[in-house]
Fold this sequence. Notes:
This protein is α/β, with parallel strands linked by helices and 235 residues long. The protein is 40% helix and 16% strand. Helix 3 links the parallel strand 4 (75-78) and strand 5.
Amino acid sequence: MSTSKVIIVTGASQGIGAETVKAFLERGHRVVATSRSIAPSDDPNLVSVPGDIGEPDTARRVVETAVERFGRVDTLVNNAGIFIARSFTQYSAQDYDAVTNVNLKGFFHITQLAIEQMQKNGSGHIVSITTTLADQANHNVPSVLASLTKGGINAATKSLAIEYAKAGIRANAVSPGIIKSPMHAPETHATLAGLHPVGRMGEMSDIVEAILYLDSAPFVTGEILHVDGGQSAGH
């Protein structure tokens, strides 16, 4: 029996998303990858679908592509996210719209459609990337919009886990600290490392390994897995 799964990854063109796509392909899975600026693929096990994940049409095209090309949806990795660090009163209406469009709408539409497919198979897994700032606010990093949206996804993850437990569908989240990725300029790394009790930033591989673990852990659901160098434990 084949253990190959069909995985959808959002925010897949760079950083953690791109590394997640690569890791699942290396393990023999088939992947549908989406982001605004994703390049076409000539790998038979990888299909890319460009689009704004906050748009319901993009979510529909991604899920339809997975079913048309590979026949099913086994795992959805909700990785797409944007972060705007501003003092709360300095956030504009445009900031609010931008963050909620990607972080909330981007989660909502595609997760609904993916779960509909998973219900047909009697199994599936949703894993969402959130932020440890939702649990442990930090005076160095103003982050109300991140906490509002990604904290909401942490709570929604637990709700989904319970609602769909008997349907064979699991829901988990990975809650990162600050990760070395294209989002952070190299000159900021020393300062950002100091925000973690372990004294360093995380690597993208730390998050990818957490996603792979959760995807292969059938008894784990409703878990918010902190991969944050001790930040959620305190300072």
